[in-house]
Amino acid sequence: MLQYTLKRLLLTIPTFFFISLLLFLVLNIAPGRPGAADGGDGERGGQEKKESYRIFKEQFNLDKPILLNTRFALEQSEVRELLVTGYNLGGEPTAAERIEAQDNLEDYGNYLVRHLVPLLDDSDPGVQQVAADTLTVATQMRFVNERRGDVKAAREQNREISKKNSAVKQWRWDDDASEADKAEVIDKWKAWFAENEATYTYTGQEKASAFFFDTRFAKYWSNLIHLDFGISTADRRPVFETVLSKLKYSLSLTFTSVILAYAISVPIGVFSAIRQGTKVDAGVTIVLFIMYSLPTFFTGTVLLRLLTEGEPFAWFPTGDFQTMTSDPMTTWARLKDILWHLVLPIATYTSVSLATLSRYARAGVIEVIRADYIRTARAKGLSEPVVIIKHAVRNGMIPILTLLGGLLPALVAGSVVIEVVFNIPGMGQYIFQSINLRDYNAVMAVLLTSSFLALIGILISDLSYAFVDPRISFD
Amino acid sequence: MTSSNADTARAAELAAEREDPTYGEIVWGQFTKRKMAMASMWGLVALLLLAVYTPILASNKPFIWHTVADGWSSPWLSSLFDRNFYENSVDIFFNTLLVFGTLVSIPVLWVFHSTKRLPRRDRQPRRRRALQIAVGVFVVAFAGVEAFPQQAPKTVYPKIEQALEAKGEAVTAVYAPLPYSFRDGELTEVRKPASVAHPLGTDNAGRDVLTRLIYGTRISLTVGVFAVALYVTFGTIVGAIAGFYGGRIDMAIQRVIEVVICIPSLFLILTVASFIEERSIFHIMVIIAAVAWTSPARLVRAEFLRMRNLDFVSAARAVGYRERRIIFQEILPNALAPVLVAATFGVARAILVESTMSFLGLGDITVPSWGQILNTGRTTGIWTLILAPGFAIFLTVSLLNLVGEGVRDALDPKLRK
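^ Those are the sequences you sent over. The predicted structure of the assembly is below.
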């Protein structure tokens, strides 16, 4: 058993890795760019907007290739081709081609430097000029992450980087610049490159490490190890903090519901099972079946329309987790307020899980009640309640106990529908809003945390089989 | 003398057949014994017929149109394959069923009826042949309709009729019981309560709710059936390969399945759906299928693992059949029972997922999906817009679940008496 548990625990690591890989690919291959509204859209706005979008991309590693990096293998002729296409220096590219080439030049960044410096001596003065322009962007150094480790040192370092960045930014010339100015700038670049050449040429080892590690996915994982899910593109706050703060809303809703559902469904299932075939059983089965087939969004909408907003009954608040007020409330009053708000969502959530659980409980007891040991217990002369509760129910509950492990992910994930309908600021509503805002870091964080919890839930559920039923052994 | 001999031989043959029903017949016999399941199945057949014959109940094109200037015509008939009127391929598909399906079903039903008394050996090839021809004709017809899209100018006949009658011209027009379009509303008829003209009232865009509701049947059934067909096919093939070959292939497939089942499916479905800019109903089917294929794969895999060392498989190997034949023609037919049950429940689930998606505004916004109607009900608070689609979803899902339970019980040998 221990061996099996260890093996399963170890297996969760690669599984989680592949989950993250799959989700990462899905999110990154998807069309539509995050933060595009900030100025990354089509024909750009001014230079300033373009620069801020470039920094935005850098911040979120969107300029890196997704999974594997081959940019160290760029050829000088390819770079020249990009310059010519991107700045319309011949070959009559379409607008789309031009934008693509410009985006590529922006994204390739540092990898362009060693090809751009020789291009400063190109025969075409136009190419010379755009090569210098591109160099001012390509040599910009990335800021270090201030959210981790020694914040002060990181800030200091970033100030240094910023100083260097703004220095190189000036090394370009305008269309009407004189030959002497041009030569001066070119000389500056050459001197600079001679000094920094080692940084921009790549050894075999550096190439190998860039191939795997200078990518979006690798950068994401290197942050993930520190539980850093990145910052939200919508509100610029660390995503993981938001996820954790949302968790308490989802949990207080789902946890109460599941406890309620178990507390109600087991007696109903047992009651229905020991009266199997009677009219009462048929009635209960039909009611449960109806509850099982009613979609949550329908139940939720009907309850909301029926019992809130004055018409026809104004018994409950229309949504939200609690009353939005700045007045100080006692703990008791606040708790009552929250409960009051949660009655309808909990009722909606419970109705579905209740139906499922009761059906399992009934089936479980019916399965057991025919067993020989029940007959034996009766033959021994035990009273009917003892037979049912001690012998039948205990064993009949095995299937629905193991269901609990499967419920864990749903518990954490909450329910998108219920949270959206009742306006509860939990995980479900958060992912729904983030999806609509294209806040990839947030979506990824929610998907990853809930997948991780699902993984653990499935593991617990598998292990609990052996735990509650000694007949099952994994060895 | 000879003829009576032949008769006796025939009778003996018939008797022999009666003693030896096929597996399908046993299961069907079990299924017909369950009244609830049978009733639900007829309910589903009724829903399917409703979906096919929807334009007869609701269309703003008149069946018959006559004016002095135009002469006699049938705008309804020519609208059935009109891409400007029915923009969606789902509607074109059902309209093809309406016209060509009805046409081919008559000879097929006749063949079925006339072969009723024949022994199985004679009956089955004829019936199969008839079905093959019917499906062939239908496929050709649908391909033709899709390949040569008709596009007529948009004409709103009820309005023209009013205008002409105001001028005093004689117009003969025969409309469907609900002379409305599911797409275009009447701005003077916004938020009308239920009445004789609008049995379920109108929505906030002035569209007849009942019309939208019955056109929504087409969407739900299509999504349910096609999404399930898609993922059951894929999952079955993957599961069969994993179970049959075992070893490393099985290991790899198992890991992939594990990865997919850990990701909360609704989250993933909503995320992927939001990336597709003009989402169509087909995207939605594919997304649902991409997440759901693991359950048939696991079921089939388990069946294959159980069966791959049984005698009949060894026999097939000994005869020298190719692996593909052993997998798909020897083992697979015996492994499909649990898949059939899962597929029936799967249709119900797929319909629920689709309505959840459109309820959250992440479905196909151009089609009158039930979830979308319910969402309008939620935002506007109009009761018919909440209750009608909710009841439609509930009814469809219940019928499917009941049929699923019937199929499950019918396939379970323990429950046979």
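Chain B touches chain A through 41 residues (CB under 8 Å). The beta strands of chain B are 64-67, 71-73, 171-174.

Shout if you want it in another format.
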